[in-house]
């Protein structure tokens, strides 16, 4: 059966579960493992599409809840869809709004029908259900849409997580029934915390529904790195080999390396741009905090050997000056570097998998990053 996106495994690392692949979408291919910068409101904060392309970005993420509130999916649809609206001609994935069930818990009420939100902008009511979340994503026109799920905050009792798993599966069935666009993929989301039985139960039910890809949800919601590892260890064995696997909300280099080792293909996170806006840069030897006085006369680039625009053009001293002077160029340059760093890391991961040296590469990078 032809699918709106096709996934092909190109190479497997013999000493781990890491795999290199290619996701073919209506707006072009994505080499995996891949990192997706987050463009919540149809923009990656501070960066133009051309700047994103220059960092190595191939696929972006946008958000259903936020775009439904402002400007409204009908506006985006009337203006030609999300790609044309934001000037990005590459692949786009839209989150369903399920994460906002967690992040805006104080403003939302969950029932079996869906979730009622009070807008964080003006307080008006927004009701999201599996059917409306799919309808909004179809109007936006992303290449990949996500099922609406319940993402419980951690720590939580096993009973609470089990309830979220049951609702996530029921909502996934409704999303599947509501989805009509033949040119848009639909991914299911596996919940279950770090409980092997709940993760297995959720994954088994979602695989039976035959989604185009599968995400591991319920991480980056208050758990430790070890809990994330455990969630991946007990989830990925259930997921089909011929479908892309997406770990939601993860962008730390250490976590990406851990996840790739378990067979994950795709990632997204606000970390590179959020850190960039706060003068913190990612490098192969750990974080660089540009506001530190040690960089006042530092002539070096943010990272030696980096080919991004920020590192090729400016010194740490200059970028620090921009932050101290509250010039908007500072966060832009730091964000450019951080996004480019994560794309370079995933490119090196792909090369290491192809050359069957991923396990050693991972250990070397983790050692260089430090504690």
Automatic annotation (TrEMBL):
Gene3D superfamilies: Queuine tRNA-ribosyltransferase-like. GO terms for cellular component: cytosol. Its EC number is 2.4.2.29. Keywords: Glycosyltransferase, Metal-binding, Queuosine biosynthesis, Transferase, tRNA processing, Zinc. InterPro entries: ArchSynthase1/Queuine_TRR, TGT, TGT-like_sf, tRNA_ribo_trans-like. Zn(2+) binds at residues 306, 308, 311, 337. It catalyses: 7-aminomethyl-7-carbaguanine + guanosine(34) in tRNA = 7-aminomethyl-7-carbaguanosine(34) in tRNA + guanine. It is an enzyme of class 2 (transferase). It comes from Singulisphaera acidiphila (strain ATCC BAA-1392 / DSM 18658 / VKM B-2454 / MOB10). The active site is at 95 (proton acceptor), 268 (nucleophile). GO terms for molecular function: metal ion binding; tRNA-guanosine(34) queuine transglycosylase activity. This is Queuine tRNA-ribosyltransferase. The lineage of its organism: Bacteria, Pseudomonadati, Planctomycetota, Planctomycetia, Isosphaerales. Residues 249-255, 273-277 are annotated as: RNA binding. Belongs to the queuine tRNA-ribosyltransferase family.
């Amino acid at each position: 059966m032809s699918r709106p996106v096709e996934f092909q495994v190109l190479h497997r690392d013999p000493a781990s579960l890491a795999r290199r692949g290619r996701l073919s979408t209506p707006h072009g291919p994505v080499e995996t493992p891949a990192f997706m910068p987050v463009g919540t409101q149809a923009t990656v904060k501070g960066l133009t599409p051309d700047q994103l392309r220059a960092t190595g970005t191939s696929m972006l993420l946008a958000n259903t809840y936020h775009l439904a509130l402002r400007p409204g999916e009908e506006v985006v649809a009337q203006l030609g869809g999300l790609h044309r609206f934001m000037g990005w001609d590459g692949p786009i994935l839209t989150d369903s709004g399920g994460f906002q069930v967690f992040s805006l818990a104080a403003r939302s009420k969950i029932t079996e029908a869906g979730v009622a939100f009070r807008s964080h902008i003006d307080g008006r009511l927004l009701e999201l259900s599996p059917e409306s979340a799919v309808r909004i994503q179809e109007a936006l026109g992303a290449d990949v849409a996500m099922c609406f799920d319940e993402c419980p905050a951690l720590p939580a009792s096993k009973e609470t997580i089990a309830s979220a798993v049951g609702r996530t599966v029921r909502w996934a069935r409704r999303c599947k029934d509501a989805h009509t666009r033949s040119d848009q993929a639909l991914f299911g989301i596996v919940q279950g915390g770090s409980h092997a039985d709940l993760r297995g139960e959720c994954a088994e039910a979602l695989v039976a529904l035959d989604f185009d890809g599968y995400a591991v949800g319920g991480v980056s919601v208050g758990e430790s790195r070890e809990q994330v590892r455990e969630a991946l260890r007990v989830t990925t064995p259930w997921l089909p080999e011929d479908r892309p696997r997406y770990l939601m909300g993860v962008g730390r280099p250490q976590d990406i390396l851990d996840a790739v080792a378990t067979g994950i293909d795709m990632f997204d996170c606000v970390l590179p741009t959020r850190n960039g806006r706060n003068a913190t840069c990612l490098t192969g030897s750990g974080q660089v905090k540009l506001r530190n006085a040690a960089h006042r006369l530092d002539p070096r680039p943010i990272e030696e050997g980096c080919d991004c625009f920020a590192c090729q053009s400016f010194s740490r001293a200059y970028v620090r000056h921009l932050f101290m002077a509250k010039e908007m160029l500072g966060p832009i340059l730091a964000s450019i570097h951080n996004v480019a760093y994560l794309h370079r890391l995933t490119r090196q991961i792909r090369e290491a998998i192809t050359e069957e040296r991923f396990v050693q590469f991972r250990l070397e990078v983790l050692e260089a990053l430090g504690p």
